[in-house]
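Obj.: predict assembly geometry.
Materials: sequence records (below).
Method: joint structure prediction, all chains together.
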Amino acid sequence: MQFTWKRMLGLSLTALLSFSLAACSGGSNSASNGGSSNAAVESASTDSGSNSSSGDGGSNAAAGNVDETGWDGSKYAEPITLTTVKGVGTNYYFKKGETMENNVLQRYMKEHLGIDVKYDWVVTDTNDAYKTKLRLMLSSGEKMPDVITYRGDIETVNMLIDSGQFMDVGELFDKYANDTYKEGVALNPDTWLAVTRDGKRMALPILDYAYNDDMLLWLRQDWMDKLGLQPPTTLADFEKIMDAFVNQDPDGNGKKDTIGLATGFKNTFLGWMSDISWVFGDYGTLPGQWNLASDGTLTYGSVDPASKQALATLKTWMDKGYISKDSGLKDETGASELFTKGQAGAIVGRNWLPDWPFGDLLNNVPGAKYKGYPLPAGPDGKIGAQSGNPSVNGWMLINKNAKHPEALLRYYNFLFDNWANPAKGSEFENGFAEGYDWAKLPDGTITKDPQKYPDLFPDYADRTHLVEPIYYSLTFEGARIPSLYADTMIKLANGGKPETPYEIQTAAIRKPENIEAMKIVLDQKDIRMKNYFQGPLTETMKSKNELLNKLINQTYSKIIYGQASIDEFDSMVESWKKSGGDQITKEVNEWYQSASNK
Amino acid sequence: MSIHKNQPYSLRHQYGQERIFGMETPITAERAGAGAGAGSGTGSGAAAGQHTGKKGFLRRTWPLHLMLLPAVLLQFIFGYLPLGGLVIAFKDYKPYDGIWGSAWAGLEHFRYMFEYPDSKQVIINTALIAGLKIIFNIVVPFAFALLLNEVRKSAFKRSVQTLVYLPYFISWVFLGGILNDILASDGIINTLLHNWFGLQPILFLGDGSWFRAVVVISDVWQQFGFGTIVYLAALAGVNPSLYEAAEVDGASRWKQTLNVTIPSLAPIVIVVATLAIGNILNAGFDQIFNLYNPLVYDKGDIIDTFVYRTGILNGQYSFGTAVGIFKSVVGFVLIVIGYRIAYKLADYKIF
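Observations (raw structure tokens):
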């Protein structure tokens, strides 16, 4: 998933930087801009406007506008220091002489926002080194920096919160976050759930693009055409298609060596690719997550009676050869190979599968075609599929004793305003800094190829990779507006003409199938079934999860393989309840009650 | 030996060549007591005149001890100091509270381990798989070495030896992938079985009883080249005069194998077996982890994979450590017992 993100980001981020043109760029609207930003700061309700460029230097703001934090509307009049720690990702590249502590982005932020980011320590983040060091810092009781940003397991975030060193950021967010950020957070009402303690919001979310994790059905269109099949709308239709794929030799090699659906459930029945959970969704539940029951309580999908029906269906699929005999031995990636080597005709996954791994399909099977379809509906017309959890890919914690806790929000606001969706001709149109992540050729075209144009990209240490200064930011990829990706794809899918730099880039790098798929995802977004439990692991979960997961995975697999009868499901549910499941259900619902009544 | 060449000249000069050689067996020298004292008499330079046992020995050899110090320190810091962390098996370890700050839990985790519903099955699986591996990893390379030893063509012998040794160097991550491929329902093995015998595909890795067989066979396949080399080396060390004598007595090849070769190899087999017994609870994490799946949990889940899932994936560090200690203690006890037995049966001392 990260893979596509990075690539997309790298190609699509657009900007124009001028080091020395400090205050000249936005002269026309600077007066009103200064006013509106100040209003936003003070009342937290005014629309600061997505095109207000608060980065156009502080020279316009009169000294009298400086608020109590020392902010004059576009920067800190007296530069402030913000301490933090950093795990340097393996995709961060530096120019010669630049480091995490001293680089173009760091200097830019200091100069334009008056925020001087200092690092207590920096570590190369391989083998979870950043996480380990954070945990060590926690366990040795070291003094925490002003800000910690973390992307990874929620357990570490919980540990940081539980350390009691960090502040309730709710008020700060309400007061200082700009509208773009607030709208992004509001897109999913559950965004705060994971970090809410006693109604207090303990960490700020780093936003990611929405709907990117939603599932749809991908079919081999060349097989569909060859066998004259119609798009499936129900599970029964889909079974007919799979039957044709298995028995009518769609690859035309005279052998019965094709299967219907590529899926693998070695590790989980709720996979991020080659997913099988949608079959359960067609019966009204999703395994491996906490679904909202009609009475308002949370129930565990894996022990829902509806799962039994889904398992019965899957068993017939296994018997008829619709799914691979090795499905139980394959994980998500392994199963996707069934599709990309041309053996399977269907796979359920996310909108970006054309980027990866479908490239392999085109290499392995010349002339193969694929196309996205909405997920078919179950016997009662139900459809359900997993949705990505809130569009959050990291958390930021602010030290209780930080002198300028609001500085982080101003930093993030700035990136939302100027970086996330830059206007044409604006500072960051082509990238962060000329000579770093972009350069202009003599004929005026923009290049991002340091290998081809060494003169335009001076001081590169490693020319095989583009140096992307935005990765040095506190917020990982600068800022992402959750709805932007989907909105852009929809616009393009509906034949809209790409206008903004972001849209032009997206149109240039996204495959048409991908754009179409995103439209399908949004058309059927009502089928999303989210995991309602987003709290820290409960006590019983910690001690019993392994036992219960093993019980479920084993019983599920055996039922599908016919090694156990379908009625084993009922005895599995019984022992699940007895061995801690009932207790976990109670704890989960207690958490849900406390988290939802803020 | 090469270390002598690297020593500064002055050192060599000061202590004399014999002293330096003495370094290799300082304990023998010390134990010999009088020998060390007597030896010092032959020393030259500064050491001369220090005749009194231990003290003189230390004074003469302190630079050597100094040289040893870094290695001892490293071993202490990375080998012994972390052992202190074992204490978390008796605590409710929470990373934020640290090892010492976490609350004591007594034997809670050990109790929990034995009460855990799956523990019995997991321990049985482990002992069974590991036991089979130990037995076959002794028998197969032993037999193979005997056979290979009878091969006259040296080139053939050597190439076979190298070939069977190769898998030993391949990591289980790769071997797991390869096995998954060739044992798949449409893999080579099932295709051959189908074409030759008309069999339906067998789910080698998805069927509990087949799974154990696959695990043991593939492990032996990977390991036996190494064992073969050990036994071949031992075979080379058998005194040829024994064979000559047997031949004079009219013993056939088979009789020679039975009465000369096998008894000569008995000690090394016993050493290998003794050391292996300590591994009765090590069924091979790398291998099982890369091959298993929910279908074979009941027959193939072993202690290490179980600890991985509870301890690492689920963050139950204390519990994982408790199980680790349990494993080590059992292994240690078994090694001691095995050692005693080996001493009794074969009159052979390892340590």
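Conclusions so far: The CA atoms of residues 94 and 467 of chain A lie 6 Å apart.
To do: check interface contacts against the pulldown list.
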